[in-house]
Task: structure prediction
Amino acid sequence: MSPGRRIRPIEPKLRLSFLSPDDIERIHNAALLVMEEVGVRFPSHKALDILEGAGARVDREKMIARLPGDLVMNAIKKAPSVYTLAARNPDDDLLLDGKHCYLSTDGCGVETYDLYTGEKRTSTKKDVHDSAKLADALDSIAFVWGPMVSAQDVPAETRALHELEACFVGTSKHVQPETIISEEIARYCVEMAAILVGGKDNLKKRPIFSVMQCATDPLGHDGGSLEASLVAAEYGIPTGFMPMPMSCATAPATLAGNLVVTTIDSLSALVLIEIAHPGAPVFFAAAPTAIDLRTGGYTGGGPEDFLLGGAFNQICDFYGIPLSMGAMATGAKVPDWQAGVDNSFSTVAPVLTCTDMLTGAGMLNGSKILSFQQMVMDCEIYEIARMFAQGIEVNDETLAVDVIKKVGVGGNYLAEKHTRRHLKDLWRPTVYDRTPYNVWEANGKKGAFETATEIARRLLETHETIPIPDDQRKEMAEVIKKAQMELAKGGVKHV
Amino acid sequence: MCKVPSEIVEKIGAAVFEGSIEEAGELAKQALASGLNPLDVIEKGCVPAIEKAGDWFARGDYFLPELVASAEAMKAAMAVLEPALREQKAERKVLGRVVLGTVQGDIHDIGKSIVGSMLSAAGFEVYDLGVDVPGETFVAKVKEVGADILGLSALLTTTMPRQREVIELLTEKGLRDKVKVIVGGAPVTEDWAHKCGADAYGEDAIRAVRVAKELVQ
Ligand code: B12
Result:
């Protein structure tokens, strides 16, 4: 039986803006100019054929397409601004309408902090399932992005399929993999999802998964990823493009210059998809950042990221394209002060620009180590952001003049009906510790980490995800088996 | 051998250290035009400068973009000086020859390139083959330049197996005992380095240099 709608999107009332309309116009014009004069690399002949057919100037040898401004603008017009990411459980569908922020898990880590031993170890298929299950149990999380970690105990050729299977089984919420990076793998994924929605034709109406691809900044894309996205678009599955320009390395040092690269590396992929499949749902995903100046490392959380993310969100509003933004990607190695600071800022900034999707909760060390505790704690950060973004509503009921008069001078509001009506409007912590000192001491001096450990263990031990019928599970397993046989022969380049 | 006028050599050193790429190339041309010995220019001008840049970076006084610019300036000067050196049938002292690249199916470039810059700053001759490099290309280059070290980068768990495949290919071609193999990249661990048959693992660029030096000793 369906538990009813569980997920809790944020509907921000407060709005921040980082760029003026004139700033946006200048960034847009700069992006158009570079796309037309320099072009963008599409290392796929299939993609180049499509672009050339539509009027782009193509250099086959360098695999670069120069995109005229009107080609770009027409493509943007074809892309829908509002659509739904479906979930296996329809109650948890996500309407992307520019008014809601949905939190996902973080993804594609390579190690896991074991929830019982605390040991850091190589990630497995079971971790993919368990993290999806915990996400299913946490109402703050709207969908699973990733998978959260790589299933390194299954063969590399079909790993992405095993991961998709483990996500579908672990959660009935929407799933958005980032690991579908070849046409072949994309076709198998479509087959697997079709089993769950009653045929490929139903995927258009019920896209229970979407795909996200990284761009190859600056001014380029990955061939396999583009071809995978073309397959997705063919079946009406939303496809997202994620530039990750790092100022000083893959983008200019200046933030405005970084935004030009981010804009080009998003828009140019959209152009391809809309030419090939007009009206196909596309979203952008942005993780622009700056390098760490000492090591060249990906910083994942820093003041530049908050500015870049917020600003790019405004640019996406200008184009009317939904946006997913990298948030909570702390570089901290354990769930510590840095993780808290990083993830709070990187959540609040995109919430206050009303980013449609935030990716996501639960990872440490720059999206490399899964921590179940961090996932629980990140949900708490998200709930604080929700409260904050709601702002203050002023009307007769909230002004509460009647009850103020009634209680009068020096009384209290504890037993008032008005209080009972509204007490649940206030924020209630689940991980935060607000106990008196002696109670905290008597309870064994538990901090947020210990509390989060208890919550994660309890949820994983007791939560039940809406199951997938046995025959459908068998069919999915058959697809993976078939894929393993076909791909192991060396059919696929990108694994 | 003519005495090196210290001014121009000093200028080349400064250009390399400061990462003035065009200037380093120009000065190298001027040096040759004024009859200087290319080996002297390299060993007294370029090498100390790039080593200084590497030291500054290692102790935190230079930022990464500054180091990379130094390595590029060094390359620009060497592009002029090395052909002249070959004409004289002379050879410069290098710590070793390194062939480096990111394995097939993987396009992550940044970490590998940083390792390349650091290795050249430390005195290695580096052949960077780029990204998405097929096994045969690695093996052919190792053979062509008589490499002492092969560095393989992989950033995806699905491309890590390629590191092992390249090592197997080296064995197949009878080259495995002629070259040391170092592996690295975000998901790569010490443990995997052993499993895939590599000689060493470099967690980051500074450690990559340390192990490379140990391997050629
Ligand atoms: C930037 C980035 C990209 C950029 C790369 C841009 C470029 N020009 O290089 C782009 C956007 C193109 C990209 C693409 C993809 N990426 Co990526 N990417 C990253 C990111 C954020 C940072 C990598 C980086 O540059 N780090 C900075 C450098 C300095 O660090 P480094 O690479 O680790 O290198 C250091 C050491 O590892 C070592 N080292 C590296 N190489 C070598 C070699 C030798 C010989 C030695 C000794 C040492 C050594 O020294 C270096 C310097 O200190 C990482 C996350 C992370 N935190 O690592 C993900 C990450 C590696 N990417 C990931 C993924 C999934 C992808 C995509 C598949 C996504 C997609 N669906 O399109 C594609 C892959 C496409 C392909 N076929 O390769 C995952 C991999 C997870 C997994 N399960 O395998 C990661 C971990 C992020 C995540 N959690 O999602 N990515």
